[in-house]
Amino acid sequence: MVKNPLPDRIRPDTLNDIAGQSHIIGTDGLLRRIIEKGVIPNMIFYGPSGTGKTTVARIAAARTERTLYKLNATTASIADIRHIVDSLDTMLAPDGALLYLDEIQYFNKKQQQSLLEFMENGQITLIASTTENPYFTVFNAILSRATVFEFKPVTPEECRPAAERALALLAEELGAEIICPEEVLDRVCRSCGGDVRKAVSAIELLAAAAPIGDGKTVTLSMDDAVTVSQRSAMRYDRDGDSHYDILSAFQKSIRGSDPDAALHYLARLLDAGDIISACRRLLVTANEDVGLAYSQAAVVAKACVDTALQLGLPEAVMPLSHAVVLCATAPKSNSANAAYGQALSDIQAGRSGDVPLHLKDSHYAGAAKLGRGEGYFYTHNAPNHYKPQQYLPDALKHAVYYEYGDNKAEQAAKAYWDKLKGKA
Questions:
Q1: pTM (2 decimals)?
Q2: Paired strand residues for 70
Q3: Is the pLDDT of residue 77 over 50?
Q4: CA 370 to CA 423: how far, in whole Å?
């Protein structure tokens, strides 16, 4: 007889046994209260694999004593949903069907719009799940009719009870004692990347591969655990949320002057082989976040990026680590970027005007007749290479966009120009 996979055999029957998700199914969690009241609205469960989305949907269906119809959007069609609706006995299902649609992001816009028809007339109560951000992948009309609940990766501590239940069930089924050293259990729970299904599957594999010594004991080895868990903790998708979340955390850690966190996220990017994204974001932050406080950071970052791309991985980690630590520990200023934003705001608001005549191009025949360049002073002929002139259009001639940052480099520049312009 073929058994279901171990994760299915130990699937919880109550909310109390679900690993993690205390923020929504804890004692006073909103999702728990909804399920316990037995009135299920349209919902979208968003989060990584192995975090309990399907299990919660099953418990919700059981709580309301409604049949749960399950479809996967990777293979299902609207015809499958119509078949479910057509087969309903309204006397047995007065509240319509409770449909669990897994991976709803694979339904295109037309399919999602067709699904909306059944939601609006009450024939279907939808519980959809997705591993991708629903605000990017789910049609707005469905989002407006559903409540989004985010399922978060399970921590190693939260994963442990599920792993222990898996060991107990395997021991019962094998009729033997399973010896699982603490370090093995810890390795499995920490390397699953927040995916309980992955942790339980790893335990099942370890038990299946372990030799049965005297017929009464099965010992799970650390060497096997390391082999099974290699790279499994990496949750990374170059086109998904995790990609942009890691890049965001990478830049914010540099901006926040935390070299340890910055190196952590750099390691996650490079371990996934994503050298291009790491290089691009490093160049951005050297200019956006370090900026004028230490302009040399932009030069160093560019040199390190060029070196990294020439070397390739794994040697690329050396120049990139160099640049990341430099930028993270450098003084910070976004004054240049902020000044550009102010200038752009004026332009987008229609505040601009003609270029002053004395600044216009005068290198062509007839320019003088049009007054082009008339009155322009070549500042290199002035003492200290500076002479006041109007450069902005008339409508903006008093505009100030750039404000000196409070760092040493910009304050030194400010002192120089204040003295030269007679403001000191």
A1: 0.65
A2: 100
A3: yes
A4: 36
